Amino acid sequence: MEKGQKLRCQRIGCEAMFTEDDNPEDACRYHPSGPIFHDGMKEWSCCKKRSHDFSLFLALPGCKTGKHTTEKPVITKAAPSPSKPVSVSTPTNDASSKLTCLRCKQGFFCSEHGSQVKVGNLKPAVNDAVPPAEINSDVEKYPPAPAKKIIDLNQPQTCKNKGCGKTFKEKDNHDSACSYHPGPAIFHDRMRGWKCCDVHVKEFDEFMDIPPCTKGWHNADPVS
């Protein structure tokens, strides 16, 4: 190994570039334990930090510090939480419970009731007596769209594309600078993978090693 050669840290939550000469005791911030996936929620078992969005979940800062390392850590797997018994409601109570269930009322799929409640037309009726001039004036009161963000071409930024996470400068950005997954990530029946490239594995560390399948621009502010 050449002296001063840049290496990539293999700890989960870090993956920073470092050299052996510049690797103090608190250089690395990482997650020592593996994740838990349950009912659409992603959670780090070591610090209980959680998120529904996979990109935000991977961006959660680590809870432990130490030296950077090129050795792949052994992930401590958390024991799955016991499943709660599902109560089966009678047909008589099912219709009334749908009317009081918050998820059904908001039009979301509800695992307890099995279907969405059809919500009536929520579009407010426009009073014919209101002059068109008043309606247009209300529309004009809404604030204009925010101005576009101005970035210094030499300012270092972190790419938020899934599977990338590299630091880049806008002056060096181009249409094949970034290797990433356009997604989404899929977690189903203990399998982890990416829908974009149809690759699925069982272990989380194997999932993190799936190579990106798409080239494009680095993006520090992706649309979620």
From TrEMBL:
The keyword Transmembrane is annotated on this UniProt entry: no
Any Pfam family hit: CHORD
Keyword field: Metal-binding, Repeat, Zinc
Key word Repeat present: yes
PROSITE patterns noted in UniProt: CHORD
Domain CHORD: start-end pairs: 9-68, 159-218
MF terms in GO: Hsp90 protein binding; metal ion binding
Domain of life where this protein originates: Eukaryota
Designated name of the protein: Cysteine and histidine-rich domain-containing protein RAR1 isoform X1
Taxonomic lineage from the root: Eukaryota, Viridiplantae, Streptophyta, Embryophyta, Tracheophyta
